[in-house]
Amino acid sequence: MRLPMLRPADLTAEQEPVYRAMDAMVEGEEYAGFEVRNAEGAFVGPWGVMLHFPELAQPLSRFIDLAQRLPGLSERARQVVILTIGARFNVAYEMYAHARLASRAGLRPDQVATLCAGGRPSDLAAEEVLAADVATALTAAGPVPGPLYDAVIEEMGQQAFDAIVFVTIHYLALGALLNAYDVEVPAGPASARKQDETTV
Asked: How far is CA 18 from CA 26, 43, 145, in A?
């Protein structure tokens, strides 16, 4: 990473409450299976970047929390959107973390691999294909095509479309942070061991 890794002892008074909030957040089960802190207690991934910007981290975290709670989208479709965005911009940490979450949501390893390679598995459910199509359209120039918008509304409903849009915005923002500061995927077995030890 292009920014220093911040251990708990390195934090400023402004960073400490952000660290504590992140620490509480990543104790959730959804953060199990991939590394969020290193052996010295420094956050990795997007958290490690956001700690450097405590005033921005708080409203961004609030937006992320609200976006994650939007109804209408299955967890499988949500992970398809995230991997579509991660692959489109080659966001290493995003694909590393969400490959595990996508598997947990029920996507097969071959489907996850295809999505991470920028492809589209041929046997996705109809709503997952539509979700990926919207996410892809949002990374191109111009509005979402009318026929695609109509198909999503008819098949999935307005809430699902809205959720796809805001999940896409969420992961575009995190992807920009991760790529700007060249956040790498944590190294192999040591990461898994640390993950088990911290139960994050």
From this structure: 12, 11, 40
How is domain 75-179 classified at the architecture level of CATH? Answer: Up-down Bundle (1.20)
Chain Cα centroid distance, residue 86: 8
**Is residue 97 pLDDT above 70, yes or no?**
yes
CA proximity to 52, closest of 98, 86, 90, 2: 2
pLDDT tens track for 147-175? 999 999 999 999 999 999 999 999 999 99
Nearest Cα neighbor of 117 from 81, 78, 90 is 90
Nearest to 44 by CA among 81, 93, 104: 93
CA distance between the termini of the chain: 21
Contacts of 56 (CB under 8 A, 6+ apart): 50
What residue spans define the domains of the chain? 9-68, 75-179
User: What pLDDT sits at residue 188?
Assistant: 60
